[in-house]
Design a protein that fits this description.
By secondary structure, this protein is of the alpha+beta class. It contains 6 helices and 13 strands.
């Protein structure tokens, strides 16, 4: 019993010791940092970072360009809580967009761990820009069969629509033009869609329906839809 307790206590001390050899990404006592290696603990750490506004903004501060703003309360159905003006993630420019911290943090993880490495792998270039058509929009859901009575996740800035990407070598990719490209542009866009499913609760692409022919719809809420 004493041996078991000693092993447990030694392991506990090792986790918290400032000179622990355990890498940050593998240490459950260390909060998420965007540039940490992705490990089996990363998703759990991300959810913990998203649990409070303070933790979300503190985590985002390490790898994004943004200005924190007061909450916007238009109505109970339309608002932006944990509001910010996002202008860049992982060194990539974004036309300033008002959104929630949760969307911004998920964007930062996606850009850091997938988009930027994919740009380097396929083009030997840096990711320099992420294009969008907005996040907050006080409206109902649009469906392929017509109008809906349900509020869109855009009404609370729990979604963002991404239309394309720019690279340091001058390459520009647009979903509306390049989704079916048989070369590296099409490959990049499909990898971008697949990897977005790791970081967002819902990812909809041109493969979902014609309403998404020109953008990825990325949500921070939902139950794992990836199309």
């Amino acid at each position: 019993m004493f041996i078991v307790f000693g092993l447990f206590w030694g392991g506990y001390q090792a986790l918290y010791h400032p000179d622990t050899p355990l890498p940050r990404g593998w240490n459950p006592t260390v909060p998420l940092a965007i540039n940490d290696d992705v490990t089996p603990l990363t998703t759990w750490k991300l959810e913990r970072a998203l649990a409070t506004p303070q933790a979300c903004f503190a985590t985002l501060d390490t790898a994004a360009q943004f200005a924190q703003l007061p909450d916007l309360e238009t109505s109970e159905s339309c608002h932006i809580r944990e509001r910010l003006d996002l202008s860049g993630v992982a060194g990539a420019r974004i036309d300033p967009v008002e959104t929630r911290c949760a969307i911004a943090l998920r964007m930062a993880m996606w850009a850091t761990h997938d988009l930027a490495p994919q740009a380097k792998d396929l083009f030997g270039a840096e990711l320099t820009g992420i294009d969008h058509i907005g996040s907050y929009n006080c409206r109902r859901i649009r469906t392929a069969s017509g109008a809906s009575n349900r509020w869109s996740t855009h009404a609370t800035a729990d979604a963002i629509d991404i239309t394309g990407f720019q690279l340091s070598d001058g390459t520009r990719m647009r979903l509306i033009n390049d989704w079916d490209d048989g070369g590296p542009k099409g490959e990049f866009l499909r990898r971008a869609r697949d990897s977005a499913c790791t970081w967002f609760r819902v990812t909809l692409s041109p493969d979902y329906n014609h309403l998404h022919a020109d953008h990825f719809h990325l949500q921070s809420k939902g139950w794992g839809l990836c199309r």
